Queue: 4 jobs
Job 1
Amino acid sequence: MAATMSPARARNLAAGATTIAMLAALACAATIHAPSAHAADDDLPARVGRVADVGGALYLAPEDRASEWAEIGLNYPVTGGDNLWVSGEGRAEVDVGAGQFRLAGNTNVHVSRVDDHDVSIFLAQGRMTFRLRYLEPGDTARIDTPNTQIELLRPGLYRVDVSDDRQETTLVVREGEANAAVTGGAQQVLPGQTATLFGDRDVQADVRNGTGLDGFDTWSADRDRYYRRGRSATYVSPQMVGAADLDAYGTWQTEGEYGAVWFPTSVAVGWAPYRYGRWTTLPGWGLTWVDDAPWGYAPFHYGRWVFVGGRGWGWCPGRYVARPVWAPALVAWYGGGGVAVGGYGPVYGWVPLGWREPYVPAWRNCSDRCWTGYNRPYAVNVAERPRQPPTHYANAQVPGAITAVPGAAFAAGKPVAPNRVSLPNAQMAGVPPLAAPPQVKPLPIASSSVRPGNGVPVPASSAFAVTKPRAVTPERPVTSTPGASVRAAPSSGGSPVYNGAEAPRPGYAAPPGRAPVQNAAEPPRGGPTRVAPAPQAPLTSAPPAPMRVAPPPVTSAPPAPIRAAPPPQQVPAAAAPPAPVRVAPAPVLPQSQAVAPPHAAPPAPVADKPAPGKPASVPVPN
């Protein structure tokens, strides 16, 4: 006999089935949308640096080809993994959006990381300055050297020198605040101070008030003035790499639906965007445009181009975005095997994207956030994401807008303008655009290269493998005490953590009691900018040793040696022998050990010999 089910039980079973179906649908939806959430973390960096100024010879070695150097010039893109070397008496500046780092001659660096929130540079040898302009909450900025790691805590101006033997790092904080890693902790360095960090495994710090200047600093100051003159920040974000050059080479005008449009003031007859320059290959991004014009970076990696009657070609930056997304080239592609001109064989051509036309990245890992960043500021309907690029482009109808070169010249990475072939619009009318950029082997960085040896250094990424910098441990900082050798109190245990590709990225830690600030070239408002001077104590009769700043006054015991202890000397029995001063993490200075104010003028060197039993001080190296 068949069993009967009560109406109440039937309703419960139906409700349960509905609940299970809803949960299954939610699980399915989560499965479908989960990859997009994870894909956002896999997006390529929205920031890519640029060679903004160069004098002399500047060489690049990508991390995957770190066996030789290729010479590069203005506007060449710089991204995480690149090695840079400035030879001889040259100099170079790289703009990374958050600021600019500058390299002196005979300087060898590895750009460990440049992305949306981090800038990390390994200085293997030489001299560099870093003008950090923006440091928002969650951002980090670090400079690694062979014997320490320097974390930049505030926007400001920093200089770092590494000695030829890589055993000594000198940090100068002109504006801002930094922590430098020492044995067991971190040494704080404040504005107007110079810290010398010496040693390999046992790193100590000598912090002094006062800084020096040389020709490299003068050039860096000139570059800072150049960035302050710009007025384009009214129309584009100052974090847009290359925007500082627009004012000197063009004018702004408002044009209907486009909004602000920038027009270059001096271009060649028959000029069109993406014609005077060359193509290279950037790992991850693929084919990347390198323009010849001194202003030719921002207009070719952000925005769209339009042809305005009576004015010609104009660049549209679109809606204001604080951190715009960088693209390798904003063009549509034509040609290949279906297009041939005369005896050239296959021809490849391209045309700049116009207003409202979407940019479809050639790589796969472009999330919804990536897609939106590339297209929303330019009036593209981001809700409709096509799987294929459009079949029609407005600028293709502009006479002379399409630029094309023979396939052989394109594959060799040769300059475009001298190798250009003419493609009449009528000939291209029936040619559909390519769905993706041409598939060619990686294009060469330069026509020639230099291998390490005979005075040419190995790339810094190779040196990094054997000279790992010590990481900062910001939870145990040593406060700045000018005029004394500092060795932080040893930590309670654990092994050092190294920054770079071999270890996970440490999280950002703001200094105690402060939040990161965003600022431009000026020092932070309201933050500590100098060490408060303690009351001055009367000096003893012994003359001061030659230093750049006034040493701490001495009342009862001679000062501690700055570096290694000098050879034993005969001293009177009643005199106390000199001993190194070990500074606790939070030192309290007695009245008899006052700190000279940062603005005190340095005493003139004296030629008198030190008093008996008093070791001679060692001047801080430049």
Job 2
Amino acid sequence: MPTLTVNTRRRPLGTVRPPARDLELSSINLRGDRGQVARLKRSIASAELAMTIDGASTLTLKVRDASRNLLRSALLRTRSVCVLDNVTYTLVKVSRDGNEVTLIFEELAINLLRRYSKPRKANRANTTRAQFIRGLVQEPHEARIPFRCPELNERQPQLEPENRPGVTPATAGIMPATAPRTVGNVPLSVLARLTVKGTRATREQLVHGQLIVVMCRRRGGDRESCAGAVATAIQESELKNKTVAQSHGTSCGLFQLINLHGTVAWRMNPVNSINWFLDGFLLYRGRGLGWLAASHKRQASAHPTAPAQWWSEGVAFTAAFIGTGGGNSSVSLGNAASFEGSRSYQVTRVEPYEFSRGSADQRETSWQCCRRLADEVQWRFFARGGAVWYVSDQWLSKQRPVAKLHEFSTGVVSLTFDYETRRDATEATLTVLTRRYGFLPGDVIQIQREGPGSGQWLVSAVRRILSTQRAEITLIRKRARLPEPAPQTRTETITVGGREQQTSGAGAFNSTPTAGPAVAASVSVAERIYAAAQEATNMRWTYSQGNRNAQRAGGQADCSSGVSWVLARAGVALPGPLRPNAPVSGAFMGWGNPGHGKVTVYSNAGHIFMHFRGFPMRRFDTGDGSGGRLWPTYRSVGGFVPRHPPGT
């Protein structure tokens, strides 16, 4: 009978070479793991091959065994294998019915992956999902499994955590039930002089203005950045948390974010809205842009100079609130200061996102793990022709169709599909007459002149009895791949000392730094170091090569003295005394613990700096004349030795 014409040339997924005589089985021998051999060709009653991208591809043989020689042999009690068309299959199941023995095999690659289940994990910061899966596939030592992934080294889009990392006042965005006598310990006489677009600021506007200044300072912003952020919010929302109904179009929140930025609930959270603005605003400020240019780059406003008219009001808010909760008093490690009362903060930490295979309590095979990891982002993990593939439907759909057909095409026996009104069909069943490997899982088929069933389809499964040309093919539509899941966050409330009362005189910053007296024990080492880096940023050191003496506000420092001061301020032991001269950068090359942590110190004989993971600002380093400050970006680490403080 005539068969369906299939274009099998240049298949990106590769192919399986069919036998010279399509309807005949080549010599199939069952081989045991101790060298036993059973020749099955003359005893095979039927053979069925089922290939799929949604599970394990199997070969089913029904063998006549009237003498029970096969049933009684050791071959059926071991991991025996057989080879069909140069693809190796492993015996996984045996059943008997009268004089027939049914042998079910699965591809060797899949069977090998089922044998490995020792817990294993890798951090997503260093490894892509595809690279982790490749490591699992390459683990078996019994045989080499070919692994194919066209997008192996590409980092996929990643969802942001619902709660942003950082430290926020526990009462941020919550307004008191009664009118306050102060806001952030600022007297009413000062508050009364604050205006928004020329009108005296309301309680809501005062709270939001303070929150912007506090958060900007906490993230390393200077006074100009704080004033610019407030001026931008005045232009966008008049410092009001406006709903969609109160705004234009779909905009809402303090910075009038649109649907592209997140859900309405997320945008209406003042902390989320401010963090979104500061992410880009402080990045551009760190690159040397003025506050107005940085604001426009972040907001992309149709009126780029409009916030400038509210600059003086931004300056007034900054002057009033600069020391009420941001800057030095945000989880401060203290200086020569006295503390009054206490203050609560919510610390949100981003947990490292790890790819894992099982755990000590619950084992998981490599096959189960790879399938789960693929399903999490709606990719495909399957075996085809002896090789293992990890690909997205988007990549599969870019292949050239192996066939273009309709229900009256030569070789098509039947074509069925169901669909809902106003939607195209999403699954179809195609029965055709074709050669043994004319269609393989992952191939593309183009169906024509079938209404809702027309268009491009992916081959999901192929089932065929090898003694016939008839093949049943399951077709599916491509599905959209999902972004990488957001990392988990953990939020806890900590209590730190209250408002600082700075002692007079420059000597307040001139003593040996020690960990602040009011930091609760629950504050981690990494948080203490980050807070010390915030404090150092606000001290505005200027760079001076070789200056490794005590730092003070407005003083001088170099790379090693700045890093040493921050670590000592956080209570971390140094490789040498801080006084009279801090350790040089080369002294840190063997200090602490090797490798990376939440805080990583990079050093060589000529320079030293720190990287932070899971905090708003990413680096403490010199640059642009600064003797040490926080920066929003990482830098190249080639040629530097990574070490991390104990406990990070």
Job 3
Amino acid sequence: MRLCITAFVFLFSIGVFGQEEEDCYKNLNDLIKLADMPLYDIYEDGGYTTYEMNENQGNKAALVDSILNVVYTEVHAIFDCLIEDGSCNEHQEAKSQLILSQRAWIKLRDAECLIARATACGGSIRNLYYSSEKMTLTKERTQFLLGMIRTF
């Protein structure tokens, strides 16, 4: 539980990284560490009842989603820094496309989560399927965004 509280304090205290100094990538390593944080150290895996398993997986999915939001905000800040720098005239268009792709990805993620949930055919485990799929897809998207940062 202490690790959970520490992770959330760290997560919400880091804010937008790239806007404090001229270096657009000054906290890239912190982002990578945050995204690679082992979730099993934060929440005990499992549970004995379906309710406990659903709650546990839902907490993990919420944490992974919060990490994604931090990384996505940082990508925005990096684009803003690069746009201000003016070294490439395509950064503004890339930022606009990033926003569009993120909105499309959210719709795709939600649809795939509903498909995963439907495989339980109304059983009590259906929410576990949903949150597990959401966590997996969100972690993949976070890694995609981190990869984008690394290519700048």
Job 4
Amino acid sequence: MTGAVLTLLSSQLKGMREAAKADDVRAMMQHDMRFHEIIIEASGNNVLLDMWHSLRIETGTFVSVIKSDWDLGMIAEMHAPVFQALKLRAPDLAAKQLRNHIEFFGSLVLKSTQILQSNESQNILRRADHGIEVRKTSRREKAKRSRAQSP
């Protein structure tokens, strides 16, 4: 890990912290994605870099952050242990911190997705229940009118 790469990572971490203070989700995601991209670029693994770009992780993460109550400051600070491990040039520690980071955010995205799906399911059920109630009322009204019209 070169000093130049560490400087770039430090700049992105600083940008994440500033975006968190400003509650700027878009800027936060840009700095977050660039932080990860710099690490992948530094690995020299072009296949991994191509895969990273093809996943378009920033889109899903952006939506998850907007639709959830994630703390942007927490998101920024979750990058600090990764940065520190890279700064120490401790590959095993860096690998551990990266794995923890990815698994933690993966679990947050999964929970957010499950909550959003659950909320959408509840909304569908409410609309369906309302529709059933409307149909029941409509049938009752028809029956009343029919009885009222009968001799």
